[in-house]
Structure formats: structure tokens, C-alpha cells
Amino acid sequence: MQRRQFMRRVARGAGITAASIARPLFAQADKRLLLGQSCALTGPAGELGTQFQRGARLYFDRLNQRGGFGGRTIELRTVDDGYEPDRCQENTDKLLRADVFALFGYVGTPTGLAALPLASAARVPFFAPFTGAQALRDPFNRYAFHVRASYFDETARIVNQLTTLGTRRIAVFHQNDSYGKAGLEGVSRALKPNGLAPIATATVERNAVEVAEAVKTLLAAGPEAIVQISAYKSCAAFIRAARAAGYTRSFYNVSFVGTQALSRELGAEAHGVIVSQVMPYPFTPASALAAEYLGAGQGVTGFEPNYSSIEGYVAAKVFAEGLKRASGAGREDLVNGLETLRDHDLGGFFVDFNPRKHTGSSFAEMTLLDREGRVRR
What we know:
Distance between the termini: 50 Å
CATH topology of the largest domain: Rossmann fold
CATH class of the largest domain: Alpha Beta
Order of helices and strands: HHEHEHEHEEHEHEHEHEHEHHHEEEE
Number of domains: 2
Shape: globular
Largest sheet: 7 strands, mixed
């Protein structure tokens, strides 16, 4: 009862009427299927949203050139939130008022947490957020679908590699918000069965690069490796400052850092930085999915293969498959269609949904950056 009352209050705050919540069918009268996306296009996390959006448009544009879906073209309406929750909530309110069919490809944990209650209250699908936070996955939500692996999956892979190599003194540098805390929880959770815990932790504020105190705190603890849970600009600032202070050991990052963005920020100093990935290797046709992605980008102005972009492409491809399997034109039909994607092969990358499981993948692998900015597997 309390949860229902809370959702009603959220809906009223967003200007969503009872009639709109009850309306089950897709109501857009023209021949568009309108998706709404709020993400960072500017600011210290701007490249993440920009690249994800480009990858999604790469798929949707090709689909539209072939006639769209069921006679409708897919339009992705993207608005900038600067990776700030308040702006994201305001954007989401406006997108829901515009009667978008679904919310697609939101970028970040704090922004996703601001938007998901609004989407749930309106019974609008919240599809493929660019985050691995458990708080957006648990408790189960009928309207939320996650294509990528979780931060628990990624940090477990990182910790497994470190402990296998005999590394025990592990510190954590993290963003001081829900994203950073989710990553810290993942590291701590993975270390615990080994009888370990982070030897030190330090934070940076979201959209900030003031890392001097964090560097001082962590280096004083003598870590053998530092796991970073933040966006690319702050992680790059930390790596540069730590190396300038004489630190020569390993840095590990989760995928949300933005691999190519981090590499560009660091230049030659990227050498030796390790990043976990939740998408197929996008730089060569090593998988059928990567080959399709690279083929779609041929001749497209500004196309640059990277992990954030292929994640947007994969999200769009999975969304389209859900539409294909939907038995009708409504939002509930889309949800039902997506739930039939049981161990679905996209071309070497598998997505598995069902009516009680909306986390599509647990795939994670480790990559290494070199001095030339290349990503090595």
C-alpha cells in the first residue's frame, strides 16, 4: 500500500494523470515511434552519452532506411542532463508529457534512479540504461530492462583477476554518489570470500576533478592496485596525479568510465590501465555482432568504433527485436515481447530475459590500454 501511494505521488509530481497511466495502447497518431532519452551530452561525462546515442542512431537509422518497423519510423529524442539527477528528472517529466513510447538509453546511476520511479508510475518501459547499479535492478521492476552486465559482475571479474595474481592490498577511488557506492559495494562484496576488504577508500564529487586529497589518502595506504569507480575525467586526473606522486602499480576501471574517452584524456599515460568491458570487442569483426556494427558504420560521417557506441547499437538492436516479438502495438505488448528473448543470440553476444528476469547479460571481460590508445584484450 505504501509503495502504491508513493508511486501515485511521483506520478502527480510529474504531471502524469490517472488516465495516462491507465492507457495501455501506443497513442502516437503519426507514423513515428518516439523514444525518449535523457543523458549527458556535455560536461565531464558528455562523451558517454554522445557515443551511446550515436551507436543507437546507427542502428535505428538503418532500420528507418529500410522502412522502419510496422510502417513506423523510430525517432530517438535525446535531451542533455549533464549527468545531473535534477536535470534528468525534469527532462523525464517533459518526455513523459510528450507521450514517448519508451525511455531508452539513460546514462548513469544517479540519473537513472531519478527517472525510474517516473517511468514506473507511468507504466512506460525504461530500457537499457547505461549503468550496472543493483539499485536499478533490485527489486524487480516489470518496466525496467537491463541489457548490460551489472557492476557486481564487473567488480567480481576485476577482483578475481587481482587475487589470482596474488594482489591483496586493494584500494578504491570512487565517485561520491550512488554510482560510486555501487561500485565500492561490488568490490567489497567480491573481496569478502577471500577474507579481504579495501585497505583504503577515497572519493571525488560527481562532475568534478579535484582529486589531490584522494590521491594522498590512497597512496598513504600503500595499495598494490587501485580500483576506480568514476567517470573518465576524474579517473584520468587521479591516474596522472598518482603517477606524478610516484605510484607505479595498477589501475582498474569498470566499463562506465568510457574506455576511449579515458584513453584520450590520458594520452600515452593510458599505458597499462585496465578496464572491464560488458560489450563485445568493437574494433575488429571478432564476432558476428561486431562485424555487423562495423559494417553499419562504414561511410557514416564521424563514426568511431568504441565500447560506448556499440552498447548503444546493441541496445537498439535488442529493442527492435522486442518490437518484432510484440503481439500488439502497446507498451505492455513490448514488455511481453522482450520477455520472450530467452538466451537470444545477437551474433556472439547473448541476451536472456523472462517474465521474472530483466537483466539480459552477465558478460564481462578485461582489457588493457596501451601507449597508442589501443585497447588490448
